[in-house]
Amino acid sequence: MIGLDSATVRFGSRTIIEGLSFSVPVGRTLAILGPNGRGKTTTLKAMLGFQPLDAGRRIAPSIVGYVPQTGTSNQRYRALDVAVMGRAAHLGIFGQPGPEDFAIAHSALERAGAARFADHYFDRLSGGERQLVLLARAIATGSEALVLDEPAAALDLHNQERLLTLLNTLRQPRDKAIVFTTHDPNHALSSADDALLMMPGGQPLFGPVAETITPQHLENLYGVPMRVVELAGPSGETHQAVLPAFAGIRAA
Amino acid sequence: MVRRAHLARQTLVFSGLLALFAVAFVVSLCVGRFAVPPTRALELIWLGATDPWRELATIDERIVLLVRAPRVVLAALAGAGLALSGAALQGVFRNPLVSPDILGISQGAAFGGALGIMLGIWGFPLISMVFLSGMAAVVLVGLISRINGRSETITVILSGLVVSSMFSAVVSLLQFVADPNTSLPAIVYWLMGSFATATWERTLIAAPGLIIGGAFLWMLRFRLNILSLDEAEAQSLGAKTNRERWMVFGLIAVIVGSQVAVSGIIGWIGIVIPHASRLLVGHDHRALLPASVVLGAGFMVIIDTLARTATAAEIPLGVITALVGAPIFAMLLRNHYRERSGS
Lengths: 252, 343
Description:
heterodimer, A: alpha/beta, Rossmann fold, three-stranded antiparallel β-sheet, 10 helices, 33% helix, B: mainly alpha, ABC transporter involved in vitamin B12 uptake, BtuC
Protein backbone atom coordinates (compact mmCIF):
# COMPACT_ATOMS: atom_id res chain seq x y z
CA MET A 1 0.00 0.00 0.00
CA ILE A 2 1.15 3.48 -0.84
CA GLY A 3 -0.54 6.85 -0.40
CA LEU A 4 -0.93 9.99 1.68
CA ASP A 5 -2.99 10.72 4.77
CA SER A 6 -4.26 14.35 5.05
CA ALA A 7 -0.98 15.62 3.63
CA THR A 8 -0.25 19.33 3.34
CA VAL A 9 2.73 20.88 1.55
CA ARG A 10 3.45 24.60 1.46
CA PHE A 11 6.19 26.45 -0.39
CA GLY A 12 6.43 29.65 1.64
CA SER A 13 2.97 31.21 1.66
CA ARG A 14 1.79 29.08 -1.29
CA THR A 15 -0.14 25.94 -0.44
CA ILE A 16 0.57 23.24 -3.04
CA ILE A 17 -1.52 20.43 -1.61
CA GLU A 18 -3.79 20.58 1.42
CA GLY A 19 -5.28 17.74 3.43
CA LEU A 20 -4.75 15.30 0.55
CA SER A 21 -5.70 11.70 1.31
CA PHE A 22 -5.66 8.69 -0.96
CA SER A 23 -4.23 5.22 -0.90
CA VAL A 24 -3.38 2.58 -3.45
CA PRO A 25 -3.58 -0.98 -2.13
CA VAL A 26 -1.52 -3.82 -3.62
CA GLY A 27 -3.22 -4.97 -6.82
CA ARG A 28 -4.49 -1.56 -7.92
CA THR A 29 -3.09 1.15 -10.16
CA LEU A 30 -3.54 4.90 -9.73
CA ALA A 31 -3.14 7.58 -12.41
CA ILE A 32 -2.53 11.14 -11.18
CA LEU A 33 -3.78 13.74 -13.67
CA GLY A 34 -3.72 17.50 -13.79
CA PRO A 35 -2.35 20.53 -15.59
CA ASN A 36 1.14 21.80 -14.82
CA GLY A 37 1.61 23.49 -11.46
CA ARG A 38 -1.24 21.79 -9.58
CA GLY A 39 1.03 19.63 -7.49
CA LYS A 40 1.29 16.35 -9.43
CA THR A 41 5.03 16.23 -8.95
CA THR A 42 4.79 17.43 -5.35
CA THR A 43 2.29 14.67 -4.59
CA LEU A 44 4.62 12.12 -6.16
CA LYS A 45 7.62 13.40 -4.20
CA ALA A 46 5.58 13.42 -1.00
CA MET A 47 4.63 9.77 -1.55
CA LEU A 48 8.26 8.87 -2.17
CA GLY A 49 9.37 10.75 0.94
CA PHE A 50 11.52 13.29 -0.95
CA GLN A 51 9.18 16.15 -0.01
CA PRO A 52 8.77 16.82 3.72
CA LEU A 53 5.11 17.27 4.71
CA ASP A 54 3.89 20.32 6.64
CA ALA A 55 1.03 18.23 8.01
CA GLY A 56 -0.27 14.67 7.64
CA ARG A 57 1.77 11.57 6.90
CA ARG A 58 2.83 9.31 4.09
CA ILE A 59 1.85 5.68 3.81
CA ALA A 60 4.58 3.67 2.08
CA PRO A 61 6.76 0.60 2.45
CA SER A 62 10.39 1.25 3.45
CA ILE A 63 11.56 1.00 -0.17
CA VAL A 64 9.46 2.21 -3.08
CA GLY A 65 10.36 1.30 -6.67
CA TYR A 66 10.80 4.75 -8.23
CA VAL A 67 11.04 5.30 -11.99
CA PRO A 68 12.27 8.83 -12.75
CA GLN A 69 11.56 10.41 -16.12
CA THR A 70 15.12 10.11 -17.35
CA GLY A 71 18.09 8.67 -15.58
CA THR A 72 20.01 11.75 -14.55
CA SER A 73 23.35 10.06 -14.10
CA ASN A 74 26.05 10.97 -16.59
CA GLN A 75 28.04 7.94 -15.49
CA ARG A 76 28.64 5.19 -17.99
CA TYR A 77 27.18 2.01 -16.47
CA ARG A 78 25.89 -1.04 -18.30
CA ALA A 79 22.10 -1.49 -18.22
CA LEU A 80 22.49 -4.66 -16.11
CA ASP A 81 24.65 -2.76 -13.61
CA VAL A 82 21.95 -0.07 -13.43
CA ALA A 83 19.23 -2.67 -12.84
CA VAL A 84 21.25 -4.40 -10.11
CA MET A 85 21.38 -1.09 -8.20
CA GLY A 86 17.77 -1.85 -7.30
CA ARG A 87 19.21 -4.42 -4.87
CA ALA A 88 21.10 -1.75 -2.87
CA ALA A 89 18.61 -1.56 -0.02
CA HIS A 90 18.90 -5.32 0.55
CA LEU A 91 22.71 -5.24 0.50
CA GLY A 92 23.40 -2.48 3.01
CA ILE A 93 26.12 0.14 2.79
CA PHE A 94 29.13 -2.20 2.49
CA GLY A 95 27.33 -4.94 0.55
CA GLN A 96 28.22 -6.15 -2.93
CA PRO A 97 25.71 -7.63 -5.38
CA GLY A 98 26.21 -11.38 -5.80
CA PRO A 99 25.10 -13.85 -8.52
CA GLU A 100 21.64 -14.00 -6.96
CA ASP A 101 21.22 -10.22 -7.19
CA PHE A 102 22.34 -10.27 -10.82
CA ALA A 103 19.80 -13.02 -11.52
CA ILE A 104 17.06 -10.86 -9.97
CA ALA A 105 18.25 -7.86 -11.99
CA HIS A 106 18.23 -9.93 -15.16
CA SER A 107 14.71 -11.22 -14.65
CA ALA A 108 13.60 -7.64 -13.86
CA LEU A 109 15.10 -6.52 -17.18
CA GLU A 110 13.16 -9.33 -18.86
CA ARG A 111 9.95 -8.29 -17.15
CA ALA A 112 10.47 -4.70 -18.28
CA GLY A 113 11.26 -5.81 -21.82
CA ALA A 114 14.82 -4.50 -21.59
CA ALA A 115 16.78 -7.76 -21.49
CA ARG A 116 18.09 -7.34 -25.03
CA PHE A 117 20.23 -4.36 -24.06
CA ALA A 118 21.42 -5.69 -20.69
CA ASP A 119 25.06 -5.30 -21.77
CA HIS A 120 24.69 -1.93 -23.46
CA TYR A 121 25.87 1.25 -21.81
CA PHE A 122 22.97 3.10 -20.22
CA ASP A 123 24.04 6.52 -21.52
CA ARG A 124 24.03 5.19 -25.08
CA LEU A 125 20.37 4.08 -24.95
CA SER A 126 17.45 6.10 -26.27
CA GLY A 127 15.10 7.86 -23.82
CA GLY A 128 12.48 5.12 -24.10
CA GLU A 129 15.04 2.33 -23.60
CA ARG A 130 16.52 4.07 -20.56
CA GLN A 131 13.08 4.27 -19.03
CA LEU A 132 12.65 0.51 -19.40
CA VAL A 133 15.98 -0.05 -17.65
CA LEU A 134 14.93 2.29 -14.82
CA LEU A 135 11.65 0.38 -14.59
CA ALA A 136 13.65 -2.85 -14.31
CA ARG A 137 15.71 -1.27 -11.51
CA ALA A 138 12.47 -0.36 -9.69
CA ILE A 139 11.18 -3.93 -10.13
CA ALA A 140 14.50 -5.31 -8.85
CA THR A 141 13.99 -3.50 -5.53
CA GLY A 142 11.31 -6.13 -4.87
CA SER A 143 9.07 -3.39 -3.49
CA GLU A 144 5.31 -3.90 -3.54
CA ALA A 145 4.94 -0.27 -4.66
CA LEU A 146 5.98 1.20 -8.02
CA VAL A 147 5.91 4.95 -8.68
CA LEU A 148 6.45 6.26 -12.22
CA ASP A 149 7.02 9.96 -12.88
CA GLU A 150 5.36 10.92 -16.19
CA PRO A 151 6.38 7.66 -17.86
CA ALA A 152 4.84 8.64 -21.20
CA ALA A 153 5.95 12.26 -21.34
CA ALA A 154 8.97 11.83 -23.61
CA LEU A 155 7.62 9.01 -25.77
CA ASP A 156 6.25 9.02 -29.33
CA LEU A 157 2.88 7.38 -30.03
CA HIS A 158 4.36 3.98 -30.83
CA ASN A 159 6.40 3.89 -27.62
CA GLN A 160 3.46 5.20 -25.58
CA GLU A 161 1.48 2.23 -26.82
CA ARG A 162 4.29 -0.13 -25.83
CA LEU A 163 4.62 1.47 -22.41
CA LEU A 164 0.88 1.17 -21.71
CA THR A 165 0.93 -2.46 -22.80
CA LEU A 166 3.88 -3.05 -20.51
CA LEU A 167 2.11 -1.31 -17.61
CA ASN A 168 -0.88 -3.57 -18.16
CA THR A 169 1.39 -6.64 -18.14
CA LEU A 170 2.89 -5.45 -14.86
CA ARG A 171 -0.59 -4.89 -13.38
CA GLN A 172 -1.80 -8.32 -14.42
CA PRO A 173 -0.43 -10.41 -11.50
CA ARG A 174 -2.05 -7.84 -9.14
CA ASP A 175 0.96 -8.07 -6.82
CA LYS A 176 1.94 -4.40 -6.80
CA ALA A 177 0.53 -1.00 -5.96
CA ILE A 178 1.35 1.12 -9.02
CA VAL A 179 1.16 4.93 -9.28
CA PHE A 180 1.93 7.04 -12.34
CA THR A 181 1.43 10.66 -13.34
CA THR A 182 0.33 11.63 -16.84
CA HIS A 183 -1.04 14.47 -18.93
CA ASP A 184 -3.28 12.24 -21.01
CA PRO A 185 -6.60 10.98 -19.54
CA ASN A 186 -6.50 8.16 -22.12
CA HIS A 187 -3.55 6.64 -20.24
CA ALA A 188 -5.74 6.46 -17.14
CA LEU A 189 -8.51 4.79 -19.14
CA SER A 190 -6.17 2.21 -20.60
CA SER A 191 -3.94 1.36 -17.64
CA ALA A 192 -5.35 2.48 -14.28
CA ASP A 193 -8.01 1.35 -11.82
CA ASP A 194 -8.25 4.66 -9.95
CA ALA A 195 -7.54 8.27 -10.81
CA LEU A 196 -6.56 11.29 -8.75
CA LEU A 197 -7.52 14.56 -10.46
CA MET A 198 -5.72 17.66 -9.21
CA MET A 199 -8.73 19.97 -9.52
CA PRO A 200 -8.53 23.79 -9.51
CA GLY A 201 -9.23 25.33 -6.13
CA GLY A 202 -7.26 22.66 -4.31
CA GLN A 203 -10.00 20.00 -3.93
CA PRO A 204 -8.58 16.90 -5.62
CA LEU A 205 -10.93 14.23 -6.84
CA PHE A 206 -10.03 10.61 -6.07
CA GLY A 207 -11.97 7.55 -7.19
CA PRO A 208 -12.31 4.68 -9.67
CA VAL A 209 -11.54 5.59 -13.29
CA ALA A 210 -15.16 5.02 -14.39
CA GLU A 211 -16.37 7.71 -11.97
CA THR A 212 -13.56 10.23 -12.31
CA ILE A 213 -12.59 10.22 -15.99
CA THR A 214 -15.82 11.85 -17.22
CA PRO A 215 -16.24 14.80 -19.59
CA GLN A 216 -17.53 17.07 -16.78
CA HIS A 217 -14.66 16.36 -14.38
CA LEU A 218 -12.07 16.66 -17.14
CA GLU A 219 -13.53 19.99 -18.31
CA ASN A 220 -13.21 21.22 -14.73
CA LEU A 221 -9.71 19.83 -14.49
CA TYR A 222 -8.21 21.27 -17.67
CA GLY A 223 -10.62 24.13 -18.41
CA VAL A 224 -11.15 22.85 -21.96
CA PRO A 225 -14.26 21.19 -23.38
CA MET A 226 -13.81 17.40 -23.47
CA ARG A 227 -15.67 14.59 -25.22
CA VAL A 228 -15.63 10.87 -24.49
CA VAL A 229 -16.11 8.74 -27.58
CA GLU A 230 -16.64 5.01 -27.96
CA LEU A 231 -14.35 3.20 -30.34
CA ALA A 232 -14.61 -0.34 -31.63
CA GLY A 233 -11.50 -2.40 -30.99
CA PRO A 234 -10.03 -4.92 -33.47
CA SER A 235 -12.16 -7.81 -32.14
CA GLY A 236 -15.38 -5.83 -31.79
CA GLU A 237 -15.05 -4.79 -28.12
CA THR A 238 -15.61 -1.13 -27.35
CA HIS A 239 -13.00 1.22 -25.88
CA GLN A 240 -13.47 4.68 -24.50
CA ALA A 241 -11.27 7.54 -25.61
CA VAL A 242 -11.13 11.09 -24.34
CA LEU A 243 -10.67 13.93 -26.80
CA PRO A 244 -10.01 17.58 -26.03
CA ALA A 245 -12.37 19.52 -28.28
CA PHE A 246 -10.21 22.64 -28.57
CA ALA A 247 -11.80 25.71 -30.14
CA GLY A 248 -13.82 24.04 -32.91
CA ILE A 249 -16.53 22.59 -30.69
CA ARG A 250 -17.99 25.98 -29.71
CA ALA A 251 -18.38 27.02 -33.32
CA ALA A 252 -20.10 23.77 -34.21
CA MET B 1 28.66 -13.30 -25.38
CA VAL B 2 28.98 -9.56 -24.98
CA ARG B 3 29.47 -10.13 -21.28
CA ARG B 4 32.34 -12.49 -21.90
CA ALA B 5 34.01 -9.92 -24.18
CA HIS B 6 33.57 -7.34 -21.43
CA LEU B 7 35.20 -9.63 -18.87
CA ALA B 8 38.08 -10.49 -21.20
CA ARG B 9 38.74 -6.81 -21.83
CA GLN B 10 38.74 -5.98 -18.10
CA THR B 11 41.15 -8.85 -17.40
CA LEU B 12 43.48 -7.64 -20.15
CA VAL B 13 43.41 -4.05 -18.89
CA PHE B 14 44.10 -5.06 -15.29
CA SER B 15 46.97 -7.35 -16.30
CA GLY B 16 48.45 -4.49 -18.32
CA LEU B 17 48.15 -2.06 -15.41
CA LEU B 18 49.71 -4.51 -12.94
CA ALA B 19 52.58 -5.19 -15.34
CA LEU B 20 53.16 -1.46 -15.77
CA PHE B 21 53.27 -1.01 -12.01
CA ALA B 22 55.66 -3.97 -11.51
CA VAL B 23 58.05 -2.68 -14.19
CA ALA B 24 57.94 0.88 -12.80
CA PHE B 25 58.62 -0.48 -9.30
CA VAL B 26 61.68 -2.50 -10.30
CA VAL B 27 63.09 0.14 -12.66
CA SER B 28 62.77 2.75 -9.95
CA LEU B 29 64.83 0.58 -7.55
CA CYS B 30 67.55 0.22 -10.21
CA VAL B 31 68.06 3.70 -11.59
CA GLY B 32 69.77 6.67 -9.99
CA ARG B 33 73.30 7.87 -9.30
CA PHE B 34 74.25 4.35 -8.25
CA ALA B 35 72.81 1.99 -10.87
CA VAL B 36 71.81 -1.52 -9.78
CA PRO B 37 71.13 -4.27 -12.34
CA PRO B 38 67.48 -5.45 -12.34
CA THR B 39 68.36 -9.05 -11.40
CA ARG B 40 70.27 -7.82 -8.37
CA ALA B 41 67.38 -5.51 -7.42
CA LEU B 42 64.91 -8.43 -7.55
CA GLU B 43 67.30 -10.55 -5.49
CA LEU B 44 67.56 -7.78 -2.91
CA ILE B 45 63.77 -7.39 -2.73
CA TRP B 46 63.55 -11.13 -2.10
CA LEU B 47 66.22 -10.98 0.62
CA GLY B 48 64.62 -7.93 2.23
CA ALA B 49 61.16 -9.49 2.18
CA THR B 50 62.20 -12.86 3.58
CA ASP B 51 64.51 -11.54 6.27
CA PRO B 52 63.73 -7.88 7.03
CA TRP B 53 66.05 -7.61 10.06
CA ARG B 54 69.28 -8.80 8.47
CA GLU B 55 72.48 -6.74 8.54
CA LEU B 56 72.85 -4.64 5.38
CA ALA B 57 76.47 -5.18 4.51
CA THR B 58 77.02 -3.96 0.96
CA ILE B 59 76.42 -0.51 -0.46
CA ASP B 60 73.90 -1.67 -3.06
CA GLU B 61 71.87 -3.35 -0.31
CA ARG B 62 71.78 -0.12 1.66
CA ILE B 63 70.85 1.98 -1.37
CA VAL B 64 68.09 -0.32 -2.59
CA LEU B 65 66.59 -1.39 0.74
CA LEU B 66 67.10 1.68 2.91
CA VAL B 67 66.97 4.58 0.45
CA ARG B 68 65.07 3.59 -2.67
CA ALA B 69 62.62 0.92 -1.45
CA PRO B 70 60.90 3.05 1.21
CA ARG B 71 60.71 5.90 -1.25
CA VAL B 72 59.15 3.76 -4.00
CA VAL B 73 56.71 2.14 -1.56
CA LEU B 74 55.69 5.52 -0.16
CA ALA B 75 55.27 6.98 -3.67
CA ALA B 76 53.15 3.99 -4.70
CA LEU B 77 50.96 4.27 -1.58
CA ALA B 78 50.54 8.02 -1.99
CA GLY B 79 49.74 7.76 -5.70
CA ALA B 80 47.25 4.97 -5.08
CA GLY B 81 45.59 6.91 -2.25
CA LEU B 82 45.30 10.15 -4.23
CA ALA B 83 43.91 8.41 -7.32
CA LEU B 84 41.44 6.39 -5.23
CA SER B 85 40.29 9.53 -3.37
CA GLY B 86 39.83 11.37 -6.66
CA ALA B 87 37.80 8.53 -8.19
CA ALA B 88 35.52 8.26 -5.14
CA LEU B 89 35.07 12.02 -4.84
CA GLN B 90 34.21 12.45 -8.52
CA GLY B 91 31.59 9.74 -8.18
CA VAL B 92 30.03 11.28 -5.09
CA PHE B 93 29.99 14.76 -6.63
CA ARG B 94 28.77 13.37 -9.99
CA ASN B 95 31.40 15.57 -11.56
CA PRO B 96 34.57 14.24 -13.22
CA LEU B 97 36.38 17.55 -12.74
CA VAL B 98 36.62 17.71 -8.94
CA SER B 99 39.79 16.67 -7.15
CA PRO B 100 40.64 15.87 -3.53
CA ASP B 101 41.96 19.42 -3.06
CA ILE B 102 38.40 20.66 -3.36
CA LEU B 103 37.43 19.88 0.22
CA GLY B 104 40.20 22.13 1.55
CA ILE B 105 42.12 19.12 2.91
CA SER B 106 45.39 19.91 1.13
CA GLN B 107 45.46 23.59 2.05
CA GLY B 108 44.38 22.85 5.61
CA ALA B 109 47.15 20.28 5.91
CA ALA B 110 49.61 22.72 4.33
CA PHE B 111 48.81 25.23 7.06
CA GLY B 112 49.52 22.68 9.80
CA GLY B 113 52.79 21.72 8.13
CA ALA B 114 53.98 25.28 7.54
CA LEU B 115 53.18 26.26 11.12
CA GLY B 116 54.90 23.16 12.45
CA ILE B 117 58.06 23.75 10.42
CA MET B 118 58.15 27.39 11.55
CA LEU B 119 57.81 26.38 15.19
CA GLY B 120 60.67 23.96 14.66
CA ILE B 121 58.61 20.81 15.26
CA TRP B 122 59.91 17.58 13.69
CA GLY B 123 58.99 13.97 13.19
CA PHE B 124 55.79 12.43 14.44
CA PRO B 125 54.37 15.58 16.16
CA LEU B 126 54.75 17.49 12.86
CA ILE B 127 52.97 14.74 10.94
CA SER B 128 50.11 14.61 13.44
CA MET B 129 49.78 18.38 13.24
CA VAL B 130 49.51 18.24 9.43
CA PHE B 131 46.97 15.45 9.62
CA LEU B 132 44.81 17.18 12.24
CA SER B 133 44.76 20.53 10.45
CA GLY B 134 43.70 18.74 7.24
CA MET B 135 40.84 17.11 9.13
CA ALA B 136 39.96 20.47 10.72
CA ALA B 137 39.59 21.96 7.22
CA VAL B 138 37.08 19.25 6.23
CA VAL B 139 35.12 19.72 9.44
CA LEU B 140 35.06 23.47 8.76
CA VAL B 141 33.77 22.85 5.22
CA GLY B 142 31.11 20.61 6.75
CA LEU B 143 30.02 23.25 9.25
CA ILE B 144 29.84 26.04 6.66
CA SER B 145 27.97 24.01 4.05
CA ARG B 146 25.44 22.48 6.41
CA ILE B 147 22.29 24.54 5.96
CA ASN B 148 18.95 23.38 7.37
CA GLY B 149 20.42 20.05 8.35
CA ARG B 150 21.81 19.05 4.96
CA SER B 151 24.54 20.13 2.55
CA GLU B 152 24.03 20.62 -1.18
CA THR B 153 26.80 19.61 -3.57
CA ILE B 154 27.36 23.16 -4.76
CA THR B 155 27.58 24.61 -1.23
CA VAL B 156 30.13 21.90 -0.34
CA ILE B 157 32.28 22.84 -3.35
CA LEU B 158 32.02 26.56 -2.62
CA SER B 159 32.70 26.07 1.09
CA GLY B 160 35.75 24.01 0.12
CA LEU B 161 36.91 26.91 -2.01
CA VAL B 162 36.37 29.38 0.83
CA VAL B 163 38.22 27.23 3.38
CA SER B 164 41.03 26.53 0.89
CA SER B 165 41.66 30.20 0.15
CA MET B 166 41.50 31.06 3.83
CA PHE B 167 44.14 28.48 4.68
CA SER B 168 46.31 29.33 1.69
CA ALA B 169 46.25 33.01 2.72
CA VAL B 170 47.46 32.02 6.19
CA VAL B 171 50.16 29.81 4.63
CA SER B 172 51.33 32.81 2.55
CA LEU B 173 51.41 34.91 5.71
CA LEU B 174 53.50 32.24 7.47
CA GLN B 175 55.91 32.19 4.53
CA PHE B 176 56.11 35.99 4.67
CA VAL B 177 57.14 35.98 8.32
CA ALA B 178 59.24 32.79 8.20
CA ASP B 179 63.01 33.01 8.62
CA PRO B 180 64.42 33.14 5.05
CA ASN B 181 67.57 31.31 6.14
CA THR B 182 66.06 28.34 7.90
CA SER B 183 62.32 27.64 7.91
CA LEU B 184 61.27 29.38 4.66
CA PRO B 185 63.13 27.03 2.27
CA ALA B 186 61.89 24.02 4.24
CA ILE B 187 58.28 25.21 4.01
CA VAL B 188 58.52 26.04 0.29
CA TYR B 189 60.16 22.73 -0.57
CA TRP B 190 57.67 20.72 1.47
CA LEU B 191 54.71 22.56 -0.11
CA MET B 192 55.96 21.60 -3.57
CA GLY B 193 55.72 17.94 -2.62
CA SER B 194 58.55 15.41 -2.50
CA PHE B 195 59.38 11.85 -1.49
CA ALA B 196 63.07 12.77 -1.01
CA THR B 197 62.81 12.47 2.77
CA ALA B 198 61.16 9.03 2.64
CA THR B 199 62.31 6.49 5.20
CA TRP B 200 60.70 3.25 6.39
CA GLU B 201 59.65 5.13 9.51
CA ARG B 202 57.78 7.80 7.53
CA THR B 203 56.25 5.17 5.29
CA LEU B 204 54.97 3.35 8.36
CA ILE B 205 53.48 6.57 9.70
CA ALA B 206 51.56 7.28 6.49
CA ALA B 207 50.62 3.68 5.66
CA PRO B 208 47.87 3.01 8.24
CA GLY B 209 45.79 6.03 7.19
CA LEU B 210 46.25 5.30 3.51
CA ILE B 211 45.49 1.60 3.83
CA ILE B 212 42.57 1.86 6.26
CA GLY B 213 40.96 4.75 4.35
CA GLY B 214 41.52 2.89 1.09
CA ALA B 215 40.09 -0.37 2.44
CA PHE B 216 36.88 1.35 3.55
CA LEU B 217 36.49 3.09 0.17
CA TRP B 218 37.00 -0.28 -1.51
CA MET B 219 34.22 -1.76 0.64
CA LEU B 220 31.98 1.12 -0.45
CA ARG B 221 32.56 0.48 -4.18
CA PHE B 222 28.99 -0.59 -5.00
CA ARG B 223 27.57 2.12 -2.75
CA LEU B 224 29.57 4.70 -4.70
CA ASN B 225 27.65 3.63 -7.83
CA ILE B 226 24.44 4.43 -5.98
CA LEU B 227 25.77 7.74 -4.63
CA SER B 228 26.80 8.77 -8.15
CA LEU B 229 23.13 8.86 -9.16
CA ASP B 230 20.82 11.81 -8.85
CA GLU B 231 19.99 12.62 -5.21
CA ALA B 232 16.34 11.47 -5.40
CA GLU B 233 17.21 8.25 -7.24
CA ALA B 234 19.91 7.37 -4.71
CA GLN B 235 17.52 7.98 -1.81
CA SER B 236 14.78 5.93 -3.44
CA LEU B 237 17.25 3.02 -3.59
CA GLY B 238 17.75 3.25 0.16
CA ALA B 239 20.91 5.38 0.47
CA LYS B 240 21.15 7.94 3.27
CA THR B 241 22.89 10.24 0.81
CA ASN B 242 23.93 13.07 3.09
CA ARG B 243 25.39 10.90 5.84
CA GLU B 244 27.08 8.49 3.44
CA ARG B 245 28.63 11.29 1.43
CA TRP B 246 30.23 12.76 4.56
CA MET B 247 31.50 9.32 5.44
CA VAL B 248 33.29 9.25 2.06
CA PHE B 249 34.67 12.77 2.67
CA GLY B 250 35.98 11.65 6.07
CA LEU B 251 37.77 8.65 4.53
CA ILE B 252 39.29 10.87 1.85
CA ALA B 253 40.48 13.30 4.53
CA VAL B 254 42.24 10.42 6.30
CA ILE B 255 43.93 9.35 3.04
CA VAL B 256 44.93 12.79 1.77
CA GLY B 257 45.92 14.00 5.27
CA SER B 258 48.25 11.00 5.69
CA GLN B 259 49.77 11.60 2.26
CA VAL B 260 50.31 15.35 2.68
CA ALA B 261 51.83 14.79 6.12
CA VAL B 262 54.76 12.80 4.74
CA SER B 263 55.17 14.11 1.20
CA GLY B 264 53.59 17.57 0.92
CA ILE B 265 51.03 18.69 -1.62
CA ILE B 266 50.95 16.66 -4.82
CA GLY B 267 48.41 17.90 -7.33
CA TRP B 268 46.89 16.41 -10.50
CA ILE B 269 47.14 12.70 -9.62
CA GLY B 270 43.64 12.73 -8.09
CA ILE B 271 42.11 14.12 -11.27
CA VAL B 272 44.17 12.71 -14.16
CA ILE B 273 44.41 9.09 -13.00
CA PRO B 274 40.68 8.47 -12.36
CA HIS B 275 39.98 10.03 -15.76
CA ALA B 276 42.40 7.75 -17.54
CA SER B 277 41.07 4.76 -15.56
CA ARG B 278 37.51 5.58 -16.59
CA LEU B 279 38.54 5.47 -20.23
CA LEU B 280 40.15 2.06 -19.65
CA VAL B 281 37.59 0.22 -17.49
CA GLY B 282 34.40 2.34 -17.57
CA HIS B 283 32.61 4.20 -14.79
CA ASP B 284 31.52 1.32 -12.56
CA HIS B 285 33.32 1.90 -9.25
CA ARG B 286 33.78 -1.83 -8.75
CA ALA B 287 36.31 -1.71 -11.61
CA LEU B 288 37.23 1.97 -11.47
CA LEU B 289 38.59 1.96 -7.90
CA PRO B 290 41.10 -0.90 -8.35
CA ALA B 291 42.16 0.45 -11.76
CA SER B 292 42.78 3.90 -10.23
CA VAL B 293 44.78 2.38 -7.38
CA VAL B 294 47.13 0.43 -9.66
CA LEU B 295 47.49 3.17 -12.27
CA GLY B 296 47.93 5.86 -9.58
CA ALA B 297 50.65 3.84 -7.83
CA GLY B 298 52.48 3.14 -11.10
CA PHE B 299 52.21 6.70 -12.37
CA MET B 300 53.44 8.19 -9.07
CA VAL B 301 56.44 5.84 -9.02
CA ILE B 302 57.34 6.84 -12.60
CA ILE B 303 56.97 10.56 -11.84
CA ASP B 304 59.05 10.27 -8.67
CA THR B 305 61.74 8.34 -10.53
CA LEU B 306 61.88 11.11 -13.12
CA ALA B 307 62.00 13.72 -10.34
CA ARG B 308 65.15 12.25 -8.81
CA THR B 309 66.96 11.08 -11.96
CA ALA B 310 66.15 13.59 -14.73
CA THR B 311 68.64 16.20 -13.49
CA ALA B 312 71.52 16.22 -11.02
CA ALA B 313 69.36 18.05 -8.47
CA GLU B 314 65.96 16.79 -7.45
CA ILE B 315 62.99 18.42 -9.23
CA PRO B 316 59.96 19.10 -6.99
CA LEU B 317 57.21 16.56 -7.69
CA GLY B 318 54.45 19.14 -7.95
CA VAL B 319 56.25 20.66 -10.92
CA ILE B 320 56.39 17.37 -12.84
CA THR B 321 52.86 16.22 -12.00
CA ALA B 322 51.56 19.57 -13.26
CA LEU B 323 53.74 19.54 -16.38
CA VAL B 324 52.76 15.94 -17.23
CA GLY B 325 49.25 15.98 -15.77
CA ALA B 326 47.90 19.22 -17.20
CA PRO B 327 48.47 18.36 -20.90
CA ILE B 328 47.14 14.81 -20.39
CA PHE B 329 44.11 16.27 -18.67
CA ALA B 330 43.55 18.79 -21.47
CA MET B 331 43.72 15.97 -24.01
CA LEU B 332 41.29 13.77 -22.03
CA LEU B 333 38.91 16.66 -21.63
CA ARG B 334 38.85 17.37 -25.37
CA ASN B 335 38.43 13.69 -26.29
CA HIS B 336 35.69 13.29 -23.71
CA TYR B 337 33.58 16.15 -25.00
CA ARG B 338 34.34 15.50 -28.66
CA GLU B 339 33.02 11.95 -28.25
CA ARG B 340 30.01 13.20 -26.33
CA SER B 341 29.02 15.83 -28.88
CA GLY B 342 29.69 13.35 -31.70
CA SER B 343 27.35 10.65 -30.39
